[in-house]
Design goal:
- It contains 13 helices and 18 strands.
- It is of the alpha+beta class and 431 residues long.
- It has 2 domains: 4-101, Serine-tRNA synthetase, tRNA binding domain (Helix Hairpins); 115-430, Bira Bifunctional Protein, Domain 2 (BirA Bifunctional Protein, domain 2).
- The strands form 5 sheets. The chain has an 8-stranded mixed β-sheet. Strands 5-7-6 form a 3-stranded antiparallel β-sheet. Strands 8-14-15 form a 3-stranded mixed β-sheet, with no helix packed on it.
- The chain is elongated and about 105 Å long.
- The relative contact order is 0.14.
């Protein structure tokens, strides 16, 4: 959430930001309500003060008539206070609804517009492969080598669930090891997070835990939700805490399962492993000072690029346009890997993203830092980034590393964990 004082002092700027992000929020109405609330709050405090004075004076009354008069005055003051408080409660309810929908401010370099206006920033070190044979997508390759069982997953839990089998299991574990090892060398603290989080944490990070808009699975009769990403658990780790500035930045590498309802997702582009209800992800998360956050965001993007360069996967990096930004993000970069079996003739598909959320999440979760020798505290900045989302990384590897006979080369950096260089038969005509 934004600083309420900032909103009141910059109503037009905040409204313009909502407009470019496609968010319906009446900022002027919020400012009017908040101003009225503050006025009423002062009146409530004054009425309460007067009522206390009258209450203390009752014992000093000269006679019963004066005593009763003072009691009646006290009752009248309390009724006025209660009426004012009721008015405040109504105002707060409306103002909170508007406030909760106001998104973060936007980086001045973020492209303005919708999804089609997002801007390509760079491409990876590996070029898109030229394949002179009929390309199979990951579903066909998975069936050929008994790597993915979508039908079995559907029988167990419904569409969007799956079994990984044989070398696909080894690839998943190898991708986890590869990402964790890579990030530990960069000073990240490896963390296995809970797969469940309370509603206040989910909401604080910026997800909607309940209601028709949610992408979150909730546990019936418990204030618990299956996490859609380790961003939720890592972001909530220091909720309500004060961190010493000298300990910042804190860089965490979170390993978790991710659960998403993916309501409304369908079509060939979403088939197979691309849009599923459960997957494993290695997440990067950082707590920084405001001065550190932009450099950290660029660093996260560089790390994502480095991981996919080492995997030998072609990709491009996209600077996401304002209309496609989530509420907490100040700026967001997506890394889209080339997927030869996607669409007609291959397409890029998102495999990672990284966002700078500035102090938006920290305000909701009340995460602050203190500077040695200074009074008071300030809100930290939070950043998140996907290192490896295993299901989509598997798509990119299987489709880019396939040969004419359907065999799949294992990326060199994963071979020590998978234990082989190639999955499937070798066709000497393909060499």
């Amino acid at each position: 959430m934004l600083d309420p004082r900032f909103i009141l002092e910059n109503v037009e700027l905040v409204q313009e930001n909502c407009d470019i992000r496609g968010v319906k929020a009446d900022v002027a109405r919020y400012a009017a309500l908040e101003t009225k609330r503050r006025e009423l709050q002062q009146e409530v405090e004054e009425l309460s003060r007067k009522a206390n004075e009258v209450s203390k004076s009752i014992g000093k009354a000269k006679d019963d008539a004066e005593r009763e008069a003072r009691k009646e005055e006290g009752r009248a003051l309390r009724e006025q206070k209660d009426d004012k408080q009721s008015e405040i409660d109504t105002i707060v309810a409306e103002a909170t609804t508007i406030y909760s929908h106001i998104p973060n401010m936007t980086h001045p370099d973020s492209p303005r517009g919708g999804e089609e206006d997002s801007r390509e920033l760079r491409r990876g070190a590996v070029e898109v492969p030229k394949m002179s044979f009929p390309v199979q997508d990951h579903v066909e390759l998975g069936e050929q080598h008994k790597l993915i069982d979508l039908e079995g997953g559907a029988r167990i839990a419904g569409h969007g669930f799956y079994f990984l089998q044989n070398e696909a299991v080894l690839l998943e574990l190898a991708l986890q090891q590869f990402a964790v090892e890579y990030l530990m060398k960069e000073g990240f603290i490896p963390t296995i997070t809970p797969d469940l989080a309370r509603g206040e944490i989910v909401q604080g990070v910026g997800f909607v835990p309940r209601g028709p808009e949610t992408q979150i699975y909730s546990v019936e009769n418990f204030d618990l939700n299956l996490v859609a990403t380790a961003e939720i658990t890592l972001g909530g780790l220091y909720a309500g805490q004060v961190i010493d500035e000298e300990d910042l930045p804190i860089k965490l590498c979170g390993i978790s399962h991710c659960y998403r309802t993916e309501a409304g997702a369908a079509g060939r582009q979403s088939r197979g492993l691309y849009r599923v209800h459960q997957f494993t992800k290695i997440e990067m998360f950082a707590f920084t000072t405001p001065e550190q956050s932009e450099d950290m965001h660029n660093y996260f993007c560089d790390l994502e690029c480095g991981l996919f360069d080492e995997l030998g996967i072609p990709y491009r990096v996209i600077d996401i346009a304002t209309g496609d930004l989530g509420g907490p993000a100040y700026r967001k970069f997506d890394l889209e890997a080339w997927m030869p079996g996607r669409g007609h003739g291959g397409e890029y598909g998102e495999v990672t993203s990284t966002s700078n959320c500035t102090d938006y999440q920290a305000r909701r979760l009340n995460i602050r830092y203190k500077t040695k020798g200074e009074k008071g505290t300030n809100f930290v900045h939070t950043l998140n980034g996907t290192a490896i989302a295993v299901s989509r990384a598997l798509i990119a590897i299987m489709e880019n590393c396939q040969h004419a006979d359907g065999s799949i080369m294992v990326p060199e950096v994963l071979q020590k964990w998978v234990g082989k260089e190639r999955i499937g038969a070798i066709d000497t005509d393909d060499e």
